[in-house]
Task: inverse folding
């Protein structure tokens, strides 16, 4: 029912929000962060060259942990989280943080869109093949999805460099710098593995649906193969695609940091990684800035799908 859907959604939102605050302050639970932060600031000010003479054990500072969670909540909800400590001084957080966030989200959304479109097209083309001829794309899929992300990125960069040396044609910028921003290549690289995973799950779902009786009935009525794939099988595979897409989104988000580092993109994940240790409010805010729009998108999409397919039942 509609009421149970929104109740379940509200509980998920509340529990995830609590988890974000718990994760953002986690270092305060395991380490003596007050002394750690002072040492890190001394290193940034070049007052210390190293910390080899210091030692810090993992402890359980429950009091400091709870205090920091409360302080983080107070800072964020009071609107005072507009500065951060870095490079030996205090700097305004915005608009730098917001610009980095928008840039990274553009890469992420564009890559997922390309991955989704490419995977759907590949799935339909594969399903149009006779059953015995699908073995080759399946074998290719098995090999490619076993490759690590870092390998794909490095091979892509090396290939572009090799083509440039042979032909003096630069297909894409392979790194950001000197006033030029690498845009298309990072998006394509980030979309590669998500496209393979979406392709894999959709292909399995399409083949399962193909074995069901309604497909035989549709064929018996004289519907052609393309119509059955695009209208009936694809429609019934949307739920499978949506359920797997949540995990693929998190997978692409996790790869975003590696992508920003290798392509020297001054993005959102890099900003958090570089400044989150000294400013745990940035970590908490960053998690919420990713969670809120994605949670809204997946919740609205799920509600729309369940309503369209009449899964909720009558209100």
Result:
């Amino acid at each position: 029912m509609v009421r149970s859907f929104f109740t379940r959604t509200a509980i998920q939102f509340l529990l995830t929000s609590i988890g974000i605050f718990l994760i953002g302050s986690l270092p305060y639970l395991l380490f003596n962060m007050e002394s750690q932060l002072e040492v890190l600031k001394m290193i940034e000010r070049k007052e210390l060259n190293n910390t080899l003479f210091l030692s810090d054990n993992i402890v359980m500072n429950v009091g400091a942990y709870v205090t920091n969670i409360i302080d983080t909540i107070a800072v964020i909800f009071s609107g005072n989280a507009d500065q951060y400590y870095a490079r030996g001084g205090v700097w305004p957080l915005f608009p730098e943080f917001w610009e980095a966030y928008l840039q990274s989200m553009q890469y992420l959304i564009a890559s997922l869109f390309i991955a989704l479109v490419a995977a759907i097209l590949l799935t339909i083309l594969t399903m149009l093949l006779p059953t015995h001829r699908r073995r080759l794309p399946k074998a290719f899929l098995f090999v490619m999805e076993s490759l690590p992300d870092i390998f794909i990125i490095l091979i892509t960069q090396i290939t572009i460099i090799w083509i440039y040396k042979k032909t003096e044609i630069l297909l894409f910028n392979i790194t950001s710098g000197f006033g030029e921003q690498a845009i298309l290549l990072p998006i394509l690289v980030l979309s590669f593995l998500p496209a393979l995973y979406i392709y894999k799950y959709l292909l399995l779902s399409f083949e399962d649906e193909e074995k069901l009786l309604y497909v035989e009935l549709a064929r018996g009525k004289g519907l052609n193969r393309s119509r059955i794939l695009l209208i009936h099988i694809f429609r019934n595979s949307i739920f499978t695609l949506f359920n797997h897409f949540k995990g693929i989104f998190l997978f692409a988000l996790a790869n975003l940091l590696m992508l920003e580092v290798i392509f020297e993109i001054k993005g959102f994940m890099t900003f958090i990684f570089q400044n989150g240790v000294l400013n745990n409010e940035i970590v908490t805010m960053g998690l919420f800035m990713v969670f809120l729009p994605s949670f809204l998108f997946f919740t609205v999409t799920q509600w729309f799908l369940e309503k369209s397919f009449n899964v909720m039942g009558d209100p």
